[in-house]
Amino acid sequence: MQRCFIALGSNLEQPLLQVERAVRALKALPQSELKAVSRWYQSVAVGPEQPDYINGVAELYTSNSPLELLALLQGIENAQQRKRVQRWGPRTLDLDLLLYADRDIDEPALIVPHPRMFERNFVLYPLYDIAPTLVFANGVSLKQQLADIGMQGLSLVTP
């Protein structure tokens, strides 16, 4: 089983409900075990003007290959009516494979580590919630990476 981290985000049609439904779908993935889910954060959207997002990160162990896992994640997005209309546009659900073990993957359909994860506080803070001792394949710790990024536009969602 490979340790993976998946970013979850939504800003349409009850975003908190959307990400919670996605967590239930992740729990049901074949050949996989959901180990942890971060707290939820509200973040200002990147890209065109749109509602704020609800974001989090899940830790998943899986024996699916990276491309198989990507297909499963896209199936969850589609089941929750994800529409790919505008780059960085609003969406009911966005699931991004951030890390797949210590592998570097550069396929037309998948790049891992996720190419923009290191510049996005709405990914790094939730990731820190569930993996504070994580060290990336390049030898940089998540804690070091967080020292270079602030919490601007990011707030914790309280129940």
Report on the structure:
The protein is an alpha+beta fold. It has a single domain (2-156), classed as Alpha-Beta Plaits. Helices cover 27% and strands 28% of the residues. It has four helices and eight strands. The strands form two sheets. Strands 1, 2, 3, 4, 5 and 8 form a six-stranded antiparallel beta sheet that branches. Strands 6-7 form a two-stranded antiparallel sheet. A hairpin with a 2-residue loop joins strand 6 (105-107) and strand 7 (110-112). It is globular and about 35 Å long.
Instruction: Write down the CATH class.
Output: Alpha Beta
End-to-end Cα distance = 33 Å
Query: What's the mean pLDDT score?
Result: 91
Specify the biggest β-sheet. 6 strands, antiparallel
As a whole number of angstroms, the C-alpha radius of gyration is 15 Å
User: What's the architecture in CATH terms?
Assistant: 2-Layer Sandwich
Uncertain runs are none
Basic shape: globular
Name the CATH homologous superfamily: 7,8-Dihydro-6-hydroxymethylpterin-pyrophosphokinase HPPK
Order of helices and strands: EHEEEHEEEHHE
* Class derived from helix and strand content: alpha+beta
In percent terms, what proportion of residues is strand? 25-35%
CATH topology: Alpha-Beta Plaits
Number of domains: 1
The helix content, as a percent range, equals 25-40%
Number of distinct beta strands:
8
Helix count?
A: 4
Keywords summarizing the entry:
single chain; 159 residues; alpha+beta; Alpha-Beta Plaits; two-stranded antiparallel sheet
Short description:
Helices cover 27% and strands 28% of the residues. It is an alpha+beta fold and 159 residues long.
